[in-house]
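ZP: hey, is the 6N-dimethyladenosine complex queued? I don't see it on the tracker
AM: it wasn't, my bad. submitting now with these inputs:
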Amino acid sequence: MRMASEEPQAKKIKLDENEKSLECGENLLFGMGNPLLDISAVVDKDFLDKYGLKANDQILAEEKHKELFDELVKKFKVEYHAGGSTQNSIKVAQWMIQMPHRVTTFFGCIGIDSFGKILKKKAEEAHVDAHYYEQNEQPTGTCAACITGNNRSLVANLAAANCYSQEKHLDLEENWKLVEKAQVYYIAGFFLTVSPPSILKVASESSEKNKLFSLNLSAPFICQFFKEPLMQVMPYVDILFGNETEAATFGREQGFETEDIKEIARKTQALPKVNTNKPRIVIFTQGDDDTILATADKVVSIPVLEISPEEIVDTNGAGDAFVGGFLSQIVYNRPVEECIRAAHYAANVVIRRSGCTLPEKPEFK
Ligand code: 26A
């Protein structure tokens, strides 16, 4: 994205003679979030009803979901996938970038256990420079992905992910250096349930150095029950992502008095901002419907790539992949429409597969 009246991040981004291939340094894109191991299964409506789950939702596990995880593994054919919303997006961004490796950094907390080992191995295979805070008080977090048709109901048991600590990890000199090295930041709103001070510290760093900070609304419950920390971070947000249900809840909670998604996007774009030289961009996805983009001077809708229903395997991770595709281009300073084209491509790839998994190489031109 090129924004007027600022020194672009292009200092770190070298164009070659034909302006097609770009060289990108390490650790340019920084993500921080809840690293989770997804336990995914196709379930029936009775299972959703038993645990009071909506077909399409993302929630934190409560007392009443205690048995859900065991029952899922016993009753259904489960698949295990590395997950966690921010971690998924960062992996997709690295996959789109391909070379060099470790353009992306990821921070989060895991347990010292077998699930933690899997997450570390998967991050390594994805060439993400992951620096986990490892502790042994809590096991690695899990997320039950209960699939019915094209819907997925996610129930996250954060466990270790909830133990992320600013003092014990983010503030450590070697870790903070990696934060400083980045030019673009991405944190899913989900992390507001864990460490708002860590988010604010990264967001302030970004705004002080005139870099790009991006956030996701992540889930209706974040817009509703984590409104206060969300609105503390909002003034630092250069790019806000969300889907149609999150946009609707956000608009309602903010008293926007409109159900119109374009209008909600416009009002969100205009919320107070610290760096006024860099007007906020708001991007709302709507499943297979057009993506809404609000910038300072316009609100437009951009159609997604077509896909026939038989080709859709699992929409879990589609939103994360969208963000990953977008970020893979913003680190190259590309125009926002081009970032959205990459976002649509990445989401289209991921919904053809189970979980937020990827083929060997992207075919994005
Ligand atoms: C705090 N919560 C509820 C969560 C999540 C989450 N990632 C972080 N925090 N709930 C679900 N997810 C992840 O979302 C991905 C799909 O978009 C799941 O782990 C899944 O990989």
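AM: back. Confidence is low (pLDDT under 50) at residues 1-22.
ZP: great, adding it to the tracker
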